[in-house]
Structures are given as C-alpha cells and as structure tokens.
Amino acid sequence: MKKVAWIILFLCTNTIFTGSVSAQTLANQPNLPKEIIITASKIEEDVKQTGSSVIIITSEEIDRKRYASVLEALRRKTGIGSASNGPFGGSTDIFLRGANAAHTLVMIDGVRIYDAITADANYDLAHLPLDNVERIEIIKGPQSSLYGSDAMGGVINIITRRGQGKPRFFVSTEVGTKDTYVEALGGQGNIGKFNYSLDASHQVSDGISKARDGGEADSYEKSSISSKMSYQLNDDLEVGLQGLYLYARSEGDDGSFQDDPNRLFEFENSLATLFTNKHVNEFWDQKLQYSWFRNIRWDSDDKDRVDTTEDNRSKFTGRTQNADWQHTMNLSELFSLNENVADTLIFGFQYSHEYGESQSATGSTTALNTTNTAGYYFENKLGLDDKMFWTLAFRTDDHSRFGLHTTGRSTFSYLFETDTRLKGSYGTGFNAPSLFQLFSDFGNANLSAGTSWGYDVGLEQELFDNKVSVSALFFLQRFKDLIEFESLAVGYVNRGSARTRGIESEFEYRPLENFTIGYGFTYLEARDLENNRHLRRRPNLKHNISFDLAFWDQFNWNVDVVRNLKTYDPAATRLKDYTVVDMALNYAINADTNAYLKIDNIFDAIYHEIRGFTTAPRLFRVGAKVTF
Questions:
Q1: Residue 109 burial (CB count, 10 A)
Q2: Which of 170, 259, 526, 557 is such that its CA lies 20 to 30 A from the CA of 413?
Q3: What pLDDT, on the 0 to 100 scale, is given for residue 311?
Q4: Is the C-alpha dihedral spanning 108, 522, 429, 411 positive or negative?
Q5: What are the backbone angles phi and psi of residue 6, rounded to the nearest 5°?
Q6: Peptide bond between residue 87 and the one before it cis (omega within 30 degrees of 0)
Q7: Residue 95: which residues within 8 A CB-CB, separation 6 or more?
C-alpha cells in the first residue's frame, strides 16, 4: 500500500503542474545564485531551490581553514557529530543528526564506498584525505528514495575535481609536531577535448598514545592517489575514468585505558569508476557509470607482557560492484509548456553486488556469501515562478535476501519577496543487513531491513543587504526494527528502535567584504527507545563559532571554536564537556606560492569522544604549496 500511495501522489502532482503551466530548465534561469548542489536531486540545482537540509564544504574553505582530512572538515559543522578512538588514524564514526554511522551513506562522485565485511557495513572516515577534492556535499535526513540502503540518516558525497584550463602542477610539503610530515604533488587542466586531475600524497607521524592512560606513541602512515580524467568524443558524448587508492597503517590500543604495544591496524581502499555522459537531445540526458570498490582491513594483536592471551591476526576483504543508469528529462522542453514553471524528471536503475571474506590467524578463509540489490528510482522536481520548488521521489529496491522495499521523499522550498525562505522535507529510509549480520557465526539469514521516517522544517532569512544570514530548523526522525547484537547464543536480531530530534540554527554576519563571523548551534535529543537511554557518543549540545579575516591582500586568518556538551559513553556515563579552538593563518607569497600555519587545539584541551581513548593535544603544522 505504501508503494501504491507514493506512485499515485507522484503521478497526480506531475499531472496537476504540467497540465497547467511549465517552463525552461532550472539551469537556464538567468537570476539564480551561483551556489550549486548536485547530491540533493542527482542533478545540478541552486541550493536555495532545494528543500533538503544541506551543507556544502568548498575547496576554498578547505584551503582557507587548512583541513587535514575529510573527517576534520565534517566534524566542525552544525548537526554533525563524530567519535574517534584516538587521533592519527583512530577508528571513527560520524553521526548525522544523531543517526548511527551505518545510517550515513558515504560516496565519492556518487559512488557508494563502504566496508562490506564490518558488522554494520559503514565506512571509516578516519583516513580519507582531501586530495583532489573540489567540494563535499552533505544532505541530512532520510535519502533512501534516491540512494537506497544506508542513507537513512543522510548522505556525504565527496566530489573530486574536474580538470579545466591551462595544465598546471603543484608540489606541497608540511611539517608538524609529533614528527609529522606530509608531501603531496599533482596537477589538473585540459588538453583539447581531454581533461584530467591528479593528486598524490604521503603522510608519516610518530603519533601519540590512543589509550587514555597510555604513554607509548602510536605511529601513523598514509599514502593516497586520486585521479579523474575524461574525453569529449563529440558535443553530445563524454567518457571518463576516475580512481582512488588509499593505504593507511596505524598503531593502536585496545580500550583498556593502557598501552598495547603490539596492536596494529592496516587499511586499504581501491576504487575504479567508468562513466559516460550522453546528451540525447534538448530535453533528455543520460549518465551511465560502473564502479568497482575493494576494502581490505588487517587487524593484528600479538601476545605481549601486558596480556598474554592476545593472539590475533585477521584479514577482512569486502568487494562491491555498482552500476547506475540515470536519465534526466526536461518535461518543460518536451511538452513546450508555459514558461512560469520548471519541470524536471529524474529516473534510473541501480544494481549492486557485494562479496566479503575473512581470513583468520591460522590462514583459513571464510567467505561471507554475496548479496545483490536492484533499485529503481524516480523523482519529479517542479519550480513555479522562481519562488516555489517541490520534489517528490520514490524508489523500490529488490534485495536478494529480504525482497522488495519501497521508500519515498518529498521536499519543498518557498522564496518570499522579503528574502525569507521556508523549506522542509519528509522521507522514509531503510538499512539492509550487512553480510556480517547475515552470514557470520553470529549472523541471522532471516533479518529484515531496519526502517525510518523523518521530517524537518525551517526558515532562512537574509537581512541588511545580505550582510546577515540567519536560519533555524526543527527535525525529527524515528528508527525501528534496527539490527542489534543480542548475545553470543542468539546473534543479530531486528529489535532496536530509536528517536532523534532537535534544532539546528546558524547565524552569519559579514560586516566587511573581507571579514565574516559565523555561529552554529545544534540541540540533539538522541534516545534508544528500547532501553530508554541516551544514544552513545552524540553531544546533546554543540556550538560552532568561526572568524574569517582577509587583510593586506596576502593574509587570511581563520579561527574555529567547537564546544560540545552532554555526551554519554556508555549511555549512563557523561563525558567531560569540552571546547576546542583551532587557528589557520595563510600567506600568499605570490600568485603561485602559498605558505600557512595551522594550530589545532590551541589551548591544549584534554577531552574524550570515546571512553578510554584520548584525543589530539595541541598540534602545530607549517606548510607551503608551489604551483607552476
């Protein structure tokens, strides 16, 4: 019945709007602001025309604030929480509005990346670098209607650079405390119809102890290569290839508050994507892409004098293949309708295949079987008089283990003459059981998908000739039939239920062209309804403050302040509230050479995100980049 209701609503809405008026495409409207987002509807659109709650982290912000990783960029944002079991490669969970890490879909250029062999099949963002990244788009709230499983809490899409202009190359180097060294090189540009971008980097560090009471430094090493290239065969057809290779090695501890001198984690990602973009005619575009992704983890913990019972050497390999055939149709052009409404239809087919295996200390290999999922998605995006914008989407996924599941989503945005914007969304989501939850020694082949529904509604206002921006938003999301580990005897079951709700508010003041003050506030109530307790490791209150000042045409000074309060781990134990202040100073020596200083945790705050594990102390980084 839910599937039928979504389809009827979709068809009736499309008929009402297209039957009366229509319009040119959003891309052709002359007075749109320049901030564009792709992930919200899988097409380019003005961010003010989407009803989804979005965050955009641009390459300019990444350079200005000198973020060292994707994780560092995310954890400074409103509505996003994180928890790491130590700096320099400690395993990390990201919580969008309090949703579990497994409920956040992580993508690179629209391609899902995840660890198919972990218990909840999430992706560990501890190592992912910012090499070749053009922007990061975060969409909060249920997004399964376009992206399928694992998008119950939201989507993080990391978009890489597309080479353009005269070919240019760069080299950079960075030196930091704890004997940390980072080197990188790369380039981008186009030669005729061929364009390319390429970045490679290497980092080593002595690190610090990850255990709260430890004293032995846990070293860290990371290498990565990221590239994208394409060729324009003719005016209507482009073909391309992109890839990522990432290797990280991190010493660690076991959470007993003390050092473990033999604990070692290794991590390897390989991603390859083939894609083609086809402009069929003035109202029809197609995109077809195929991707192959492999995630390997090694976990070793030999016997030592502290604990002679340890003896672990394991290897976990997960492989996925994905295909996505997307169609975008400009219904306004197709039916030559009235110019007051823009009407775009996005639909497509996705197919994924996943396989996992584990290798024990004895060398024996256990294959955790395979699963296949076929997904069919549709979205209609309507715009009326450049003021009202509405989307309606639904999707059906056919999973090889638990069958069909249908999700839907609707968003709206209305722009008033007073520079006020009203926006909101409602959607449903689902989370398929992982290979480990289905087929491991603790698995349950009869598991069904966890589900969710949620909504948000908010206001945005521009004041004083756009010198002041304010926004406030309320959100609520319910989760049920979540997959939980019950006991060694029972294994995994569908039993969990949870609720997250709260308020997100932001304020930005631009008194001068070169000076910006920003403030973000998050109130989050995240509860396990099954046991009536706090969800672990999510701050109940979060404040973000930023100052950005450019001066003397060569300097840029940035300060970020984050204060987290009321975090529990475990659910009945409150962690210490804390404030962390970071600073970045950039100096443009000339048009091709830049130098910078970054100080993380200026006041050397001592705090914990996960009980038993430490966090980064005050760290200095000094670097330079030369372009030629």
A1: 20
A2: 526
A3: 64
A4: negative
A5: -65, -45
A6: no
A7: 80, 81, 82, 83, 101, 104, 153, 526, 537, 538
CA 358 to chain centre: 27
Contact 120, 103 (CB under 8 A): no
The rounded distance, in Å, linking the Cα atoms of 74 and 581 is: 15
pLDDT value of residue 119: 87
Cα–Cα–Cα angle for 48, 52, 55, rounded to 5 degrees: 75
pLDDT value of position 60: 95
Structure tokens at 385: 């008089």
- Assigned token pair, 166: 């005269």
Q: Output the six-digit token pair for 351.
A: 């197919």
Q: Is the Cα torsion angle 23, 26, 29, 33 positive or negative in sign? A: positive
Query: What's residue 20's pLDDT?
Result: 33
Which of left, alpha, beta for 401 (phi over 0: left; psi -120 to 50: alpha)?
alpha
Beta bridge partners of 336: none
Burial (CB count <10 Å: 0-12, 13-18, 19+), residue 459: middle
Q: How many CA atoms lie within 13 A of 3 on its CB side?
A: 8
Tokens 């003719």, residue located? 234
The total number of residues written for the chain in this structure: 628
The C-alpha atoms of residue 426 and residue 406 are separated, in whole angstroms, by: 15
Report residue 10: phi and psi, to 5°: -60, -50
Number of continuous H segments (helices) and E segments (strands) in the chain: 6, 32
Q: The tokens of 332 are what?
A: 């306004």
Question: Phi/psi at 3 (nearest 5 deg)?
Answer: -60, -45
Is residue 233 helix, strand or coil?
strand
- Distance separating alpha carbons of residues 519 and 508, to the nearest angstrom: 6
Q: What is the CB neighbour count within 10 angstroms for residue 598?
A: 21
Match 């995006």 to its residue by tokens: 381
Mean pLDDT of successive 10-residue stretches along the chain, which has 628 residues: 42 38 32 74 94 96 95 94 93 95 95 90 92 96 94 96 95 97 97 96 96 91 97 96 97 84 93 97 96 95 63 87 97 82 95 91 75 97 94 96 92 96 97 90 90 97 95 97 89 93 98 96 96 94 97 96 96 94 97 97 95 94 97
- Antiparallel, parallel or unpaired: β 154-160 and 104-108: parallel
Q: Which residue has the tokens 């998050």?
A: 522
